[in-house]
Specification:
The chain is mainly β. 2% of the residues lie in helices and 45% in strands. The protein has two helices and 26 strands. An eight-stranded mixed β-sheet has the order 4-5-6-7-11-10-9-8, with no helix packed on it. Strands 3-26-25-24 form a four-stranded antiparallel β-sheet, with no helix packed on it. Strand 17 and strand 18 form a beta hairpin. The longest helix is centred in the N-terminal third of the chain and has 4 residues. The protein is globular and about 55 Å long. It starts with a strand and ends with a strand.
Length: 384
């Protein structure tokens, strides 16, 4: 049965709504993606990394970049100097697992704390995500150390397989730490409150549980949970009004952008606007109005990874827009918001898989390509 693709593109300055019957059909949005010759920006290569996964800026303008194999690199865009950060944990590298996200504490300038996620091994060929915090000590030569490291959260239980860790991190306007905990390709844990898999997690900055979380009365690990029914969440971002948005990879033909509500259930794996990869159908969200439906569904998937909501001055026309990296779509997707509504506004054909998106101190957009020789690209407005 055909499904409406809740997505629009800026074509000839007019929004166009596309529909599609299946993920194998041509994707008009991809075909209409803005090619390099028409980009409104210039993309300048700043460096290359080995399987980069995430990045974050430090107050001095340098970057911390995680490499999936288990390295944390400090890179200074101004000088091109890079140095390794020691004290990184041993990671369970393989599949989608390895070193993950990195963010700095809102008061990093005074406390020096960084937070990072990674996949770790468990007993009997199991694995799970972990989140730790440590003090970052920087050296004059560009290197540094993580000291006084403390694991403050873990996925429970650890399970077999090497997929769908999620482990994206974000600090909210409330100063709380938000973690995406994906369902590890096990489906049912996303609805099981005896696990913290398939959930959005909200913690205090020391890993303790806030007293106002929605499921505190159920005890651990439910007390960590803010929302449930999620699949593979690889992007978390707060908008200018303090609302949390997330994107997640759906099954075949069902990538999503969601507005996160306190205690909300987003339905996976009971409902999805995609289907299982083996062809088995999953009921659409509109068959179960008790679950929260996506604000945007990409029936032709973009494979979203990395997410910011832009508030810089360098691209004033894009203030308030979301930017999502596309892996299989090899794109940068701009999302326009209107209150609690959203739509795809335009898509840029980047030619390579985009793993991460960040906003620089001066308002430039920074992208990390996926893979063994992934480029770090700085996007600045194209000169007239």
């Amino acid at each position: 049965m055909p499904r409406t693709l809740l997505l629009s593109m800026s074509l000839a300055l007019a929004p166009v709504l596309f529909t599609s019957a299946c993920a194998a059909d041509p994707d008009p949005a991809a075909e209409a993606a803005v090619k390099p010759a028409q980009w409104p920006f210039t993309a300048t290569e700043a460096a290359r990394f080995n399987e980069p996964w995430a990045m974050t800026f430090l107050p001095d303008g340098s970057l911390l970049v995680t490499e999936k194999g288990g390295k944390l690199v400090r890179f200074d865009p101004a000088s091109g100097k890079r140095g390794n950060i020691s004290g990184v944990p041993t990671v369970a590298y393989g599949g989608q697992g390895g070193f993950g996200d990195v963010v700095v504490h809102p008061h990093f300038a005074s406390n020096g704390l960084v937070y990072y996620s990674y996949a770790e091994d468990g007993a009997d060929d199991t694995r799970g995500a972990a989140v730790a915090r440590a003090k970052l000590v920087l050296n004059a030569d560009g290197s540094g150390q993580l000291t006084d490291a403390q694991v403050i959260w873990r996925q429970t239980p650890k399970v077999s397989g090497r997929g769908h860790y999620g482990h994206r991190l974000a600090f909210g306007p409330d100063g709380k730490l938000w973690i995406s905990s994906s369902e590890r390709q096990k489906f049912d844990p996303a609805q099981d409150m005896k696990t913290n898999l398939g959930k959005i997690i909200r913690l205090n900055d020391d890993g303790s549980v806030p007293a106002d979380n929605p499921f505190v009365a159920q005890g651990s690990p439910a007390d960590q949970v803010w929302s449930l029914g999620h699949r593979s969440v690889l992007g978390l971002a707060f908008d200018g009004n303090g609302k949390l948005w997330e994107h997640e990879m759906g099954p075949k033909g069902g990538d999503e952008l969601n507005l996160i509500q306190r205690g909300g259930n987003y339905g996976y794996p009971i409902v999805s606007n995609g289907d299982h990869y083996d062809g088995r159908p999953i009921p659409d969200h509109d068959t179960r109005p008790d679950f929260i439906a996506p604000v945007v569904t990409w029936r032709q998937v973009i494979s979203p990874a990395g997410f910011i909501i832009y508030n810089g001055a360098l691209f004033p026309q894009w203030q308030g827009s979301g930017f999502i990296g596309g892996l299989s779509s090899k794109s940068l997707v701009r999302v326009a918001f209107d209150g609690d509504k959203a739509r795809e506004a335009e898509r840029f054909d980047m030619g390579n898989r985009i793993r991460e998106v960040e906003q620089g101190p001066d308002g430039a957009l920074w992208l990390l390509e996926d893979g063994s020789n992934g480029r770090l690209l700085k996007l600045t407005p194209k000169a007239d």
